[in-house]
């Protein structure tokens, strides 16, 4: 029997819709699956009810009875109301199972007849609630769901707390949500069962807010607007959605420098105490809300003489933060500042900005406030804003520069010099630098509707092309128009042909044609005297030549490094510095590569070049990974991926590298998921180059996870793609050794030798020493498969030494592991010690688990072999690969620890995977999986 009683509209909420709460949701669901209780807590609007409903929908079917209540503030004074919600529909079922005195007291409390009170019937009522829950649990597990626990009437709260503390082993679980500020949930936790897990819901990140807005249909918001929604909402999902809704309903978006429109619902929520302020205090807060970094000194300079007393009054009302932060004036929540500003009349806003335009010490702030205090066009204001934009650009704040540039365009007369569109184009280029590609594209499209000057049109087309990122196929129609606008001007043609080179490489996958386009662009730029475009084109030409294994690559890099240089190109992610870094990395010069990319990363951070920062952080992670610093690589790759998700830039490439780092030093399930995400993005963008990298990462993760057959499938496809793309340098993707090893594991040593021979020819031609060493390691496995045991051992010993000298720590450890495995038929207890030491030095946790499993197998006299995916029964169709493997091993009778050892994953990962298996198969325990196996064998 399942009983549901809700005062809020019930909503079944699938777990995959709990945006930004996936880990929290899994933790709470696992706690419920273990028979425990959960207390969700956090501030208003943070998403507690959403998570509560999702958990109830996901786990509720496992309970025999589900009791619900949802309190409200207006009804919190009514005694026993929550109790009536919970037990009203089951009273008839359990009343005859209660002692007479308890039944009478409970019926009186639930029906209102008899005027039962805690003072008079306290003990009988307490025991009645406890007995009622035990009676319900006698028929099966009971789940008690309570939302907004803070509004529970005191009588019901007291009775439920009494029962919860005394349930013992009775199968009754509580799933509750309570509004708290900070961490003050102890009182509610003390009234919960002893095994309750308290789960705090924290603010969402910017990427999570973006995903939430997308899910709710607000998909056309520029990233700059999403960033402002995140800042204003403070990461609160309710506030973010209300702000998104207000923007969706607004006929015109806010202009640059203006705050977001705050809907009436949120104004009422956060400004309920505003009427208690004096008029002067309210004006002081308005000035503070109009300032970027308000302080008491700034308020005084803006004419607010009694700022101390007025801000103290606001702090007492909860409008300002009360904790000491020096002279800063900080609102208790960003939304209070936004709502206060939105509530103020336009004239009062302008007066506040006018006061700040002279009071602020920073020239950028003075210019911004002057613009917001001024109506109409004004050449002097426009000039001040252009100067401020240049200053912001020099400070490494291109996003601020873009906002100021748009304000400058707004205040520039139509016949001004520079023209309004000049300011707009500069703002678009600043937005590209800041990673705000949506804003940049919108500005460029607007300019193209009226621009007639060819140079302006080409600049605008450049922005449109660059804002497409890797999806250059989406802007195919742009290139003929841009070529027509360029006419016969070599400078303008050079820009178009440079972008055509990228399109040819990414969309068509033609390295030879892309190289020729880049060389043509460099020639045109040199003829037109455009050194920046010449350098960018030479850098791209060097990049393609490096990947092709073209003999001209070193000389092209030298040409690109000749003076004069351009500071922007030197640190651009497709510029000279990046081309040199790629060459160093592929040439096994790891210390020089690390020094180069570290310098570049420092410079792009100083300049605020977000797109370049995403790529350079990934490049540094790749360098650390090759050096065997897996922990450092994991941290860097995760940060790069976070930045990519936050900015919407380089997502596929960052996911690909993060997958490699996770497979080497982190979590294998995450590595597999990230590789598939990267491959999906590359296919969606039509980017064959990154598709091959993503599939190589997937094949590597599958190999580490022990699924050699899947690794062979993925890596064979990489081989086909790179053959078609004519990528000949094996140092580019470094997948050849993995494919050969996987082929040996699945019993195809002949094909493995073919892979090695083809890659070795190119590696010898290009002098790729580390690639040759890895190929020799794979060939040793081929020799062992053919029975040449001694030859394989000799080859591996040599390989390990060579890799150590080259500085490839992880590959050195893999060679030591292969050596230990070949010696395993007659091992001693320390035969794997060297491999374990090297992997531990690298912090290569997935590999360490493999060593532990192999050592354990050797201690029992078993010959360690690479784990293969267990056969899955028909009943397991529909499960993910890892889920099928775990379930199949359970069918064989393996314990969680044995499964972890065989699949090279943690026991915790096994437990979480089994929880997902139970849910997908509609079962509750390992016993049910064994029954599935018995049913399969009976057929």
Q: What percentage of residues falls in helices of 4 or more residues?
A: 55-70%
Uncertain segments = 1-16, 860-873
Taking the sheet with the most strands, its summary is: 5 strands, parallel
With strands numbered from the N-terminus, the spatial order across the biggest sheet is 2-3-4-1-5
Cα separation of the termini: 34 Å
GO molecular function: adenylate cyclase activity; ATP binding; DNA binding
Protein name: Transcriptional regulator
Keywords: ATP-binding, Nucleotide-binding
Pfam families: AAA_16, GerE
Walk me through the topology.
Elements: H1 22-33, E1 38-42, H2 48-59, E2 65-70, H3 81-87, H4 91-94, H5 100-111, H6 118-137, E3 142-147, H7 154-164, E4 172-179, H8 186-190, E5 197-200, H9 206-215, H10 223-233, H11 237-249, H12 264-270, H13 279-290, H14 296-301, H15 307-316, H16 334-343, H17 346-359, H18 363-373, H19 379-394, H20 398-410, H21 420-434, H22 437-448, H23 454-467, H24 478-486, H25 490-508, H26 511-528, H27 531-548, H28 553-561, H29 567-571, H30 576-586, H31 590-607, H32 610-626, H33 630-647, H34 651-665, H35 668-685, H36 688-704, H37 708-725, H38 736-745, H39 749-766, H40 769-785, H41 789-806, H42 809-823, H43 833-842, H44 845-859, H45 881-891, H46 896-903, H47 907-921, H48 926-938
Parallel strand pairs: 1-4, 1-5, 2-3, 3-4
Organism: Streptomyces griseoruber
GO molecular function, one term: DNA binding
Protein name: Transcriptional regulator
């Amino acid at each position: 029997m399942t009983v549901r009683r809700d005062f809020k509209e019930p909503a079944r909420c699938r777990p995959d819709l709990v945006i930004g709460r996936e880990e929290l949701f899994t933790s709470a669901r696992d706690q419920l699956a273990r028979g425990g209780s959960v207390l969700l807590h956090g501030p208003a609007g943070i998403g507690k009810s959403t998570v509560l409903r999702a958990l109830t929908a996901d786990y509720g079917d496992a309970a025999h009875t589900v009791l619900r209540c949802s309190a409200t503030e207006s009804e919190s004074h009514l005694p026993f109301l929550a109790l009536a919600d919970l037990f009203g529909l089951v009273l008839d079922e359990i009343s005859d199972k209660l002692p007479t005195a308890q039944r009478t007291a409970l019926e009186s409390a639930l029906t209102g007849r008899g005027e039962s009170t805690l003072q008079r019937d306290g003990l009988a009522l307490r025991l009645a609630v406890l007995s009622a829950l035990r009676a319900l649990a006698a028929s099966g597990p009971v789940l008690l769901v309570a939302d907004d626990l803070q509004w529970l009437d005191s009588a019901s709260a007291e009775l439920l707390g009494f029962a919860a503390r005394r349930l013992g082993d009775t199968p009754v679980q509580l799933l509750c949500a309570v509004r708290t500020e900070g961490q003050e949930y102890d009182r509610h936790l003390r009234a919960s069962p002893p095994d309750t897990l308290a789960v705090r819901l924290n603010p969402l990140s910017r990427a999570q807010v973006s995903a939430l807005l997308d899910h709710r249909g607000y998909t056309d918001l520029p990233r700059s607007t999403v960033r402002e929604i995140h800042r204003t909402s403070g990461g609160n999902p309710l506030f973010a959605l209300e702000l998104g809704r207000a923007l969706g309903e607004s006929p015109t978006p806010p202009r640059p420098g203006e705050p977001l429109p705050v809907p009436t619902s949120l104004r009422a929520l956060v400004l309920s105490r505003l009427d208690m302020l004096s008029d002067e205090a309210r004006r002081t807060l308005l000035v503070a809300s109009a300032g970027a970094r308000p302080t008491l000194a700034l308020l005084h300079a803006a004419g607010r003489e009694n700022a101390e007393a007025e801000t103290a009054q606001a702090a007492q009302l909860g409008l300002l933060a009360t904790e000491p932060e020096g002279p800063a004036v900080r609102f208790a929540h960003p939304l209070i500042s936004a709502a206060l500003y939105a509530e103020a009349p336009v004239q009062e806003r302008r007066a506040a900005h006018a006061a700040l335009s002279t009071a602020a010490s920073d020239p950028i702030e003075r210019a911004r406030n002057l613009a917001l205090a001024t109506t109409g066009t004004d050449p002097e204001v426009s000039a001040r804003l252009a100067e401020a934009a240049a200053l912001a650009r020099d400070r490494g704040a291109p996003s601020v520069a873009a906002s100021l540039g748009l304000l400058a365009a707004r205040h520039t007369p139509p016949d001004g010099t520079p023209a309004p569109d000049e300011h707009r184009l500069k703002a678009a280029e600043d937005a590209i630098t800041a990673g705000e590609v949506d804003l940049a594209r919108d500005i460029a499209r607007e300019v193209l509707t009226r621009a007639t000057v060819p140079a302006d049109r080409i600049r605008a087309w450049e922005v449109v092309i660059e804002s497409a990122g890797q999806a250059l196929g989406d802007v195919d129609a742009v290139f003929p128009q841009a070529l027509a606008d360029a006419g016969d001007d070599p400078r303008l043609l050079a820009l178009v042909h440079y972008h055509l080179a990228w399109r040819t490489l990414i969309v068509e996958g033609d390295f030879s044609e892309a190289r020729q386009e880049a060389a043509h662009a460099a020639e045109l730029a040199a003829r037109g005297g455009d050194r920046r475009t010449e350098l960018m084109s030479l850098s791209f030409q060097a990049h393609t030549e490096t990947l092709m294994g073209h003999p001209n690559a070193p000389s092209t890099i030298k040409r690109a490094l000749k003076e004069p240089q351009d500071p922007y190109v030197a640190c651009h992610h497709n510029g000279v510095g990046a081309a040199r870094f790629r060459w160093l990395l592929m040439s096994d010069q790891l210390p020089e590569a690390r020094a180069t990319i570290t310098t570049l990363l420092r410079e792009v951070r100083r300049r605020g070049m977000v797109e370049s920062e995403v790529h350079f952080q990934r490049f540094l992670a790749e360098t650390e990974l090759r050096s065997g610093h897996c922990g450092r690589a994991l941290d860097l790759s995760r940060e790069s991926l976070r930045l990519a998700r936050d900015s919407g830039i380089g997502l596929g490439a960052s996911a690909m590298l993060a997958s490699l780092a996770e497979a080497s030093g982190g979590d294998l399930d995450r590595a597999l998921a990230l590789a598939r995400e990267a491959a999906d993005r590359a296919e969606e963008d039509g980017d064959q180059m990154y598709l091959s990298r993503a599939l190589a990462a997937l094949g590597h993760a599958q190999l580490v996870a022990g699924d050699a057959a899947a690794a062979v499938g993925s890596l064979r496809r990489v081989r086909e793609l790179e053959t078609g793309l004519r990528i000949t340098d094996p140092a580019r993707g470094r997948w050849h050794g993995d494919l050969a090893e996987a082929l040996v594991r699945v019993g195809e040593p002949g094909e493995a030798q073919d892979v090695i021979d083809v890659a070795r020819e190119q590696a010898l031609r290009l002098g790729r020493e580390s690639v040759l060493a890895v190929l020799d390691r794979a060939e040793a496995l081929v020799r062992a498969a053919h029975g040449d045991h001694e030859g394989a051992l000799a080859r591996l010993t040599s390989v390990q030494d060579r890799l150590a000298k080259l500085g490839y720590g992880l590959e050195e450890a893999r060679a030591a592991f292969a050596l230990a495995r070949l010696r395993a038929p007659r091992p001693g207890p320390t035969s794997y010690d060297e491999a374990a030491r090297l992997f531990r030095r690298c912090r290569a946790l997935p590999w360490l688990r493999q060593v532990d499993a192999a050592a354990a197998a050797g201690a029992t006299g078993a010959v360690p072999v690479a784990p293969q995916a267990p056969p899955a029964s028909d009943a397991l169709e529909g499960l993910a690969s890892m889920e099928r493997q775990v379930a199949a091993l359970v069918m064989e009778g393996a314990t969680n620890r044995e499964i972890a050892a065989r699949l090279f994953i943690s026991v915790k990962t096994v437990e979480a995977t089994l929880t997902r298996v139970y849910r997908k198969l509609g079962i509750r325990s390992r016993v049910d999986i064994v029954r599935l196996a018995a049913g399969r064998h009976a057929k």
